[in-house]
UniProtKB/TrEMBL annotation:
Topology in the lipid bilayer: Multi-pass membrane protein
Broadest EC class assigned to this enzyme: transferase
Keyword hit for Transferase: yes
Name of the protein this chain belongs to: diguanylate cyclase
Length: 736
């Protein structure tokens, strides 16, 4: 599980960064329009999310394209800046809720201290210290701010704020306490590697999941605020559905993107593994071909009848036998050939310098002699420490006619020419012995160094023998093929034993290509995720505009309805007294301004009280409604019929003089008199007519029309009276 998740670190970094960037964007949107301390805290969190997400993407690029000192410094600085933004969010929140907080000056000594730690102890130590000094306290303070402020904003309910509190508290542990390995406590005891070893899960995945939870909580808070602003049931339902749809879509996009990334990476992985297998087979076969000749020659030498007299010690044949040994050694360009008897004495040598050793039992305890005299074939690649010369030693037991082992034949050939030819190979390869010591390689800096740690083999011993030192390229010994860190770079490492020896050939192929292939999948995933977000939020904007337009239209309708109700008589549907007064003033001003005639008719139903008394008020109301509709249908559209009050009505007649208004009133009187009303039969009405005169205002015009109506009543009802210019109001009073 852990190995698999480690191989997915590039996608985990992508997921981690995307989650924090979404969190940052949502916080900045949520803080928009909030100029108080709460808005400032949310804004700082938003900036932290954006910068920290960008830092995780930089880590992803470092993993894919390879890292360097300058790029590592940049990533460290960006990480520290992001944690400073988080700490500032916590500091602002603490100030808001009354905690004693230092000023922004506190970041100056912290930044200087982190720079000193990075310079003296390395960038990993600076990152760990930044997490301890900035990320952990910042996240804790933000969690405290969210918890203590859970009741401050009624638009964001308490469960959301409690969720934010828990998420930031979890982030304080995941990002502020589980840090990079550093040579000080507690970073050297409890760190990211420890967490991975104990849980099998990279801490980056946990941090990414926390960021997803925070983004979802902040999004929900933003949605509640929008729903509060746009109080429309349909839009609230839309936001809830959109929340589920976006989460589902993003999870689906990430899942499919992860599958695509793995698929593209697997294609490259299979190609790399196939190429590595072919290269290793080629190198091993070339090495085995070179050694096979020596193996065949030493077997032929051991089986030669001419060797037996040497072992028997018959001196007469020594010269011929030595010539045969020298000939065998010369055929394969061996550096040395030996015939050794059962006692370990050298009885024949191809090197004249060995003549002084003849007959001396100096090889009894040599490993290759011990193995060969015991009947086992010997195949060794050896290194001479002083001269750093590499040779291949092969030995075979010499048997008599009865099959008994009588001695050992040994040939040692130089591998320097073969090693020089193999250095021309492109991919990094290493021929290592059983100790992991590199004896042949095309990477000269790694020659005579161990490829993996050997606690049982002190590095000082290797350094003393070969003058080579340095950190091993591998963290552990490799068997078969594996994708591991090799010299600080992710590589595919394949190890294949060399038959008949304790040697192995190791091939290392950097995996820049596989991460480039996976990067294509990540880029496609990012593009689809962005397109999905643009689609959903664009659709939300359209839906919100539609709901806002509907809400405005409904409010407009309600306003117009209220205005109509305020200006309309509830029984007859005609304009009421308020609407009449407003229209009267308008028409009066227009008439006087433009010198156009304007007249007013006031009429009421004769003996209407008797209708109510005899037939009841409901019938009386029916008469009023029928009369209103009859009269309103008989006047011009420009005219306004209004209920004056009770059984009285008024008509405004723009651009109409007194004579025309008088004729209109006469027609209406006849219309009323000839209309049959249900239950009542016929009724009559009396009319008073007045034209606006110079110097008139609303009260005088109404008074003159009302006095004309009063005269019609006095003169017998069911008639029309015209207000004349020479008649004063007081003269038309009933007491005149």
């Amino acid at each position: 599980m852990a190995r698999h998740l480690e191989s997915q670190l590039d996608f985990i970094f992508f997921f981690y960064g995307l989650s924090f960037i979404l969190l940052g964007a949502l916080c900045l949107v949520l803080a928009r329009g909030q100029d108080d301390d709460r808005g400032a805290t949310i804004r700082w969190i938003g900036l932290f999310g954006c910068v920290h997400g960008a830092n995780e993407w930089l880590d992803m690029l470092a993993l894919i394209a390879g890292d360097g000192t300058e790029f590592m410094v940049v990533r460290t600085v960006v990480l520290i800046v992001s944690f400073m933004l988080l700490a500032e969010a916590g500091r602002k929140g603490g100030e808001t809720h009354g905690l004693p907080m230092p000023g922004p000056w506190i970041y100056i000594p912290i930044f200087i201290g982190l720079g000193a730690i990075g310079f003296v102890d390395g960038l990993a130590s600076a990152k760990a210290a930044a997490r301890y000094l900035l990320a952990a306290p910042g996240a804790v303070l933000v969690a405290f701010t969210a918890f203590t402020g859970r009741n401050d904003d009624i638009r964001i309910n308490r469960p959301l704020m409690v969720g934010v509190t828990i998420a930031f508290a979890g982030y304080a542990v995941a990002a502020g306490m589980i840090v990079e390995f550093a040579p000080f406590w507690p970073a050297n005891s409890f760190n990211q590697e420890t967490f991975l070893r104990v849980t099998g899960v990279p801490i980056q995945l946990v941090r990414g999941l926390i960021a997803v939870a925070l983004a979802a909580l902040v999004w929900a808070a933003w949605g509640r605020r929008v729903m509060e602003k746009l109080d429309y049931p349909g839009y609230s339902l839309h936001l809830k559905r959109q929340f589920i749809d976006v989460l589902t879509t993003l999870l689906l996009v990430l899942a499919l993107g992860w599958a695509l990334t793995n698929y593209l990476g697997e294609i490259y992985r299979e190609g790399v593994e196939s190429e590595a297998t072919g290269d290793v087979t080629l190198l091993v076969s070339g090495l085995e071909r070179e050694t096979a000749i020596a193996d065949a020659m030493v077997k032929a030498l051991a089986a030669s009848p001419s060797v037996q007299p040497m072992l028997a010690g018959r001196e007469g044949n020594r010269v011929a036998e030595l010539s045969l040994l020298e000939l065998d050694a010369g055929v394969i360009q061996a550096t040395r050939g030996l015939i050794v008897n059962r006692a370990g004495d050298i009885v024949g040598s191809s090197d004249s310098s060995d003549q002084s050793w003849l007959g001396m039992p100096n090889l009894r305890s040599v490993d290759w002699f011990e193995q060969s005299i015991a009947g086992r074939a010997v195949h060794q690649i050896r290194v001479d420490p002083p001269q750093r010369l590499r040779t291949y030693l092969t030995a075979s037991p010499i048997r008599d006619a009865d099959g008994e082992i009588q001695g050992v034949a040994m040939l040692e050939t130089s591998l320097e020419t073969l090693a020089e030819l193999m250095t021309r190979f492109d991919q990094a390869f290493f021929v290592v012995d059983a100790r992991g010591l590199v004896v042949i390689t095309n990477r000269r800096d790694e020659l005579f160094r161990t490829l993996w740690p050997r606690p049982d083999l002190p590095r000082l011993q290797i350094a003393e023998q070969f003058g080579a030192s340095g950190r091993p390229m591998l963290a552990r010994e490799i068997f078969g093929g594996d994708w591991v860190e090799f010299g600080g770079r992710r590589s595919y490492v394949l190890r294949q034993p060399i038959d008949g020896t304790q040697m192995s050939l190791i091939l290392a192929i950097p995996v820049k290509g596989i991460f480039a292939s996976r990067l294509l999948g990540i880029i496609i995933t990012l593009q689809v995720a962005i397109a999905a977000l643009f689609y959903f939020f664009g659709m939300d904007r359209g839906v919100r505009d539609r709901f806002e337009r509907q809400l405005r239209e409904e409010l407009l309708i309600q306003t117009e309805d209220l205005a109509r109700q305020a200006a309309t008589d509830s029984l007859t549907g005609l304009a009421n007294r308020m609407k009449f007064d407003a229209r009267l003033n308008e028409e009066l001003s227009r008439s006087l301004r433009n010198a156009r005639p304007f007249s007013l008719i006031i009429f009421d139903i004769d003996h209407f009280k008797e209708v109510n008394d005899i037939y009841g008020h409901p019938v009386g109301d029916q008469v009023l409604v029928r009369l209103s509709r009859t009269v309103d249908a008989s006047i011009r559209q420009a005219d306004l019929l209004a209920r004056w009050g009770g059984e009285e009505f008024a008509i405004l007649l723009p651009d109409t003089d007194a004579a025309a208004a008088y004729e209109t009133a006469k027609k209406l009187r006849l219309l009323v008199a000839h209309t049959i009303f249900e239950h009542v039969g016929t009724i009559t009405a009396s009319f008073g007519v007045a034209q606006v005169l110079p110097g008139d205002h609303a009260d005088t015009l109404v008074a003159r029309a009302d006095n004309a109506l009063y005269r019609a009543k006095l003169n017998g009802r069911n008639r029309v009276e015209l207000s004349l210019p020479v008649i004063e109001v007081v003269e038309l009073s009933p007491t005149a």
